[in-house]
Amino acid sequence: MAEKAKSKSNQSKSSKSSKAAQSKPSAAQRFIAYLKNVRQEIKRTSWPNRAEVLKMSALVIGALVFFGLTIFSLDSIMTRFVAFYAKLSPSSSGVDSSSIQELLNQVLSGLIY
In angstroms, rounded to a whole number, what is the distance separating the alpha carbons of residues 88 and 92? Predict the structure, then answer.
């Protein structure tokens, strides 16, 4: 019995020492492994050719122009609507339409400059 207990303690000591030898790699080793994995992934990546890049770039620029013009148009329409509504509003509140128009012009000139 004593021999079995002794052999078990020797086995547990050897397994602990093998675990210590297999400890976590250092930060430099992990970083090098990370860079190797990145390199492998880049090699597997399917890169677009020149024609595809130009086609997608034109699509993005076209979308930017379209949405820019759309937002500009809506903004212009809403500005004219607010100015028209300000002229129609009664001046019983002590504010006349010319002061509202001036205020609107100041706000718009502040946005432009």
Answer: 12
